[in-house]
Design goal:
This protein has helices at residues 24-33, 38-50, 79-101, 129-144, 163-177; strands at residues 9-14, 52-53, 66-67, 105-106, 112-113, 115-118, 121-126. With 187 residues, it is α+β, with helices and mostly antiparallel strands. Helix 1 (24-33) runs antiparallel to helix 2.
Length: 187
């Protein structure tokens, strides 16, 4: 029997300015899920929110204090851990969606590969271009729920709200235009 390499489609992506856009709310939810003490979570949030930034345009022109509602402090040794915990929650949500939709590639041992994550880089793995397109739209939508990969109304046709609202909106738009709607990912 001759071995043949599997035919795969892979999307190599990067979460732009990932540490700058980590939502404090998403961090707190992820930390709670990991079992971190509420006192410690609130202490981190207090410290981060007490940090202020000042934008200096030149020697004389500066902004007032800019408060933080998202982002992890640069240089904080715990920042990579906080980031990974927050991203892990989203990755689990995406993996569950992939299993339901049979997205990714099933391996010989029955396990699946659909997403490979390393820091703020990711690979989405699919067996055809349509699957990869649907996976990409769903992953970007999930990231946008916490402020990463911010979607504008026109970028993927995804309004703010739940995945179900997105699907409903796409079906309604397609019906008005007379086109058949594409299969939309559901959470």
């Amino acid at each position: 029997m001759e071995w043949r390499a599997p035919h795969l489609y892979v999307m190599d992506g990067d979460i732009k300015k990932a540490y700058d856009f980590v939502s404090h709310k998403a961090f707190a939810e992820a930390a709670r899920e990991k079992g971190i003490s509420e006192i410690l979570i609130l202490a981190w949030l207090r410290e981060w929110r007490n940090m202020k930034s000042i934008v200096r345009l030149d020697a004389e022109a500066t902004s007032g204090d800019v408060e933080r509602t998202r982002s992890l402090p640069l240089g904080d040794p715990a920042a990579p851990n906080h980031f990974n915990n927050t991203l892990a929650i989203l990755a689990v949500k995406f993996t569950i969606l992939c299993r339901r939709r049979k997205w990714g590639k099933e391996l010989i041992d029955g396990t699946w590969v659909d997403t490979i994550l390393f820091a703020d880089s990711y690979w989405l793995v699919a067996t055809n271009h349509k699957m990869l397109e649907n996976m990409t739209e769903a992953w970007l939508y999930i990231l946008s729920e916490v402020g990463w990969g911010r979607l504008r109304k026109n970028s993927l046709g995804a309004p703010r709200g739940t995945m179900e609202e997105w699907h409903t909106s796409r079906v309604a738009r397609s019906a008005r235009s007379g086109r058949t709607p594409r299969q939309a990912p559901k959470c």
